[in-house]
Amino acid sequence: MNETFDFVVVGSGGGSMCAALALRAAGKSVLILEKTDLVGGTTAISGGVMWIPDNRFMKSEGIHDSPEQAIAYLDAVVGDHDDTPGASRERRRAYVEQAPQMIDFLVSQGIRLRRIPSWPDYYAAPGESVPGRTVVSELFDINRLGEWKSRLRPGFLPLAANLDEAMELANFKRSWGSKKVIARVIGRTIASRLAGKHLATAGQALQGQMLHAALKAGVELRVNAGARQLVVEDGRVTGVVLETNGAEWRIGARCGVLINAGGFARNQRMLDRYIPGTSTEWSNTARGDTGEMIEEGLRIGAAIAQMDERIGSPMALPPGNPPVKPGMQGDISKPHTIVVDQSGERYMRESSSYMEIARAMRARDTKVPAVPSWMVLDSQYLGKYMLAGTMPGSKKPKQWFEEQFLRRGDTLEALASACNMDPARLRHSVERFNGFVRKGRDEDFHRGDHAYDQWLGDSLHQPSRTLGTIEQGPFFALALYPGDVSTYGGLVTDVHARVLREDGSVIPGLYATGTSTASVMGRASPGAGGSIGPSFTWGYVAARHAIQA
Ligand SMILES: Cc1cc2nc3c(=O)[nH]c(=O)nc-3n(C[C@H](O)[C@H](O)[C@H](O)COP(=O)(O)OP(=O)(O)OC[C@H]3O[C@@H](n4cnc5c(N)ncnc54)[C@H](O)[C@@H]3O)c2cc1C
Q: How many angstroms separate the CA atoms of 314 and 375, rounded?
């Protein structure tokens, strides 16, 4: 070995810095290797929400939850399936037990967290929490990172606003409550800039805080340092190999190696093999999400599973190819819009979870062309709601029309012909939906029946937050793709986050977490934070095991 640490972490994703902090607290030396020039992975781009059952913030706010309730919910939503070994009953239970402890540990390390007051679980199932089980970062002044500030990956929301505040901003023309929120955010932004601060929010704030704490605790972090191989000696993983300036550099790890190198949403070859029909172009993951450490695990005998699974998310692809493509779930669940396949037929509950929406699109596409599908909306929608990241109102970028990103028709028939849909079928879909709106009940897909649907909708729209007629021309449509925010399959791990072989035996010295693994949530996302919560938690679990081993 060219050098040796107690523990080496591959990738600077969600669980990496959490594991590193736990190891440093036990006096172990830790090195984090990050392949790209920026720290934080997709976690830094994200909302930074963690799904943590029975967490300390629920307790302090008097919101009822219990491990039994959370287990009942995961039993119902995730369930027991032979092809999802990452989501075994034992792992689900271990998650429910360890996740709140991980949060307590972070708080003890000075990480400032909170919960979002309302973010219902995604499924109407026994044990669901309607207030929700979310834990997020407080806003964080990234100037505190000093020279590391420029090494932190930017987030998707360049505002000094908490997520719950950001969700209010689009209503500023219609609600005094929203006007107050805007005033608060603007006031905070000005005051913090005058004080020489740069407040980050969401995933960037979370990873900024983690990076700050990790550096302070003496974690060593290297960027532009991609691991290429695992070193295996007598069946045990004892280090990693990097390639620097064309030469091999071998780094030993006395207590273990943790893979937290993300999934493979940016690797078209792997997508074609495991999730055919999907594209790297539809992904909002960080560029380094290329899956080589999953393949490296496979090479040394690790088991992989759930490789066909992904955290799908409906995406629009506006001209100009923005770095973070607009996720459209919030848009399509508002009143005055529906989603139809390429023939013009409605086929889904538009206000379900992003994962279910993208799954419905791909499933529909096996029967009739539905990739892309069309989001169809009317002028009432355009006036009231954000569309693909633009503020409410009929003024949209000229390029949107020139490049046919947003299509327009004075009548539904004209819109159908602009999109090559069957005019009669589109009119039938719209009229049937309008009939449900008037009855106050979506008899086809039950849009609006669950707390989560209502939460996604428009809190100012009566009597239903998500059902509103599509009747005022001109009408508009834009193409929706079944994008993703991560893949969800990978290395199979046990209740200690140790990587397993096909025969269920442990590969000594090798741990994994995050989207490099077969998710503990199987084929579901139980609620907001179903990826980052587990990434942090299994990182913490791995560290604790490695300390004792
Ligand atoms: C806009 C957006 C919002 C989202 N919001 C949420 C949310 O609120 N809650 C939630 O749970 N999920 C959310 N997601 C999904 C979530 O962000 C990801 O699933 C999650 O962050 C993945 O985390 P990770 O720990 O697996 O890896 P990542 O955070 O992606 O980190 C992996 C890192 O490993 C590096 N790496 C890869 N290969 C190597 C190598 N060979 N050597 C060294 N380094 C390597 C990568 O460059 C990367 O930096 C969101 C995603 C997006 C895009």
A: 10
502 plus 442 within the same structural domain: no
Are residues 108 and 138 both part of a single domain? yes
| In a shared domain, residues 458 and 385 | yes
Residue 271 lies in a domain: no
Do 355 and 525 contact (CB within 8 A), yes or no? Answer: yes
CA distances in angstroms from 9 to 1, 18, 389, listed in the order given: 16, 11, 35
User: What residue ranges line ligand 1, CB within 6 angstroms?
Assistant: 10-15, 33-36, 41-43, 45-49, 156, 226-227, 260-262, 284-286, 288-289, 292-293, 311, 324, 485-486, 514-515, 528-532, 535
DSSP 229: E
* Mean pLDDT value across residues 392-396: 93
Mark residue 228 as left, alpha or beta (left: phi above 0; alpha: psi -120 to 50; beta: remaining). Answer: alpha
DSSP state letters, 177-217: HHHHHHHHHHHHHHHHHHTT--EE-HHHHHHHHHHHHHHHT
Residues 135, 80 within the same domain: yes
Average model confidence (pLDDT) across the chain: 97
What does the pLDDT look like over 264-288, one tens digit per residue? 999 999 999 999 999 999 999 999 9
